[in-house]
Please model this.
Amino acid sequence: MEVPVSDLSSSGLRVDLREAICCLTEALNLVGVDERQHGERVACMATETARVLGWDAARLSDLFHASLLHDCGVSSTRVHTKLVSELDWAGSERHCKIGAAYLRSFRPLAHLAPVIRWHHTHWDALSGNAEVDADTARMSNLIYLVDRADALLAQYRAGGDQAAFDRIRDKLAGLSGRFFAPELVEAFMACSRGEAFWLALDPLDVAEYVAHFDNPEPPRIEDDRDLHDLARIFAHIVDAKSPYTYEHSRGVARLAVRLARRDGLPEARVSQVEIAGLLHDLGKLGVPDEILESSAPLDHDSRAIMHRHSYDTFRILHRIHGMEEIADWAGCHHETLIGDGYPFQYGAGQLSREARIIAVADVFQALAQDRPYRKGMAPAEVLAILERMRDDGKLDGEVVAMVAGDMEGCYEAAMPKEGNGLPWGGAE
Ligand SMILES: [Fe+2]
Ligand SMILES: [Fe+2]
Ligand SMILES: [Fe+2]
Model:
């Protein structure tokens, strides 16, 4: 019987959770396309405001992580644009529910799910909500307040006003008591008075702020399952970009696990292959929806944007200490044995067995699933294409032979699982 992927034995990885969260937040930043680092700026403004309020270290740590991840329910570049270009958008509730559902499935930060859930709810509704305790309400509302500060900053900048700091402050002050808790607005006004507060939101400063955030109580990964859960959440976020990528990353991970086991890799290795499969398309978060969903062949520019996703995956994962090898395998899923793939144009000599497995699993899953421009293919068609790609020197012959010897099992592993998708209603 096949072992469920969540019951894999230890991957043997030693990863700092705080570093993993900060790096993976970079992937969320990609969703902003031209408006990146939103999560970081929110974390910076929220924690500085909370310091004025005298919050203790544990609460600051929670606020910092909730701020970084507050928009993890947004995979779509269109939704992200709406959220930053409108002050109060009726559709904003959905990403709060999705983000909260993600966080609930990650033990080290599950207690922050309610904070994410209410981060677009007006204070006059939130403060009277018996479901929400006072601390959660305040933390959520603080994130909402600085989130809107960042949205206004983007709006004024788009209109050519680079220093609309006082206008932003006036606007937010005018919403005190209605949108935001008066005590939070007061603290925000105190700490955002000088222009240094705003200038510190520039890309390099804010990256430094997040990297050096002094956190005496960082969340810790207690066992291997936490890391897999975190990887699975990011796979959900990537797959939620489009109905056509629904469960793609998870299908690739399942199939790669199956192939790695058939290949006789040790279980710790198999477990790492699963993480690489789950995260291989992380960089796709930066691909605008209209390119990902295009049913026409991509032009030169769109193809260049699409192609950079595997490099972005590599770059982000490589920064997590302990995950360098996984970054290599995941980042090479579009490389070929004859060296005409991307982004490195590596050849057979540089592609590990694990990378070759991920590459085959990626092509297999993509062919088996419906795409905007064609229906999903039957097993025989999938195999014929894999064999053609092997003959052309693109895919590894031994891995393709493993697929051929286990076609039914591979197809079953790769296909989306009914009822195993997004309980909160599919892609945006
Ligand atoms: Fe936001
Ligand atoms: Fe890809
Ligand atoms: Fe993929």
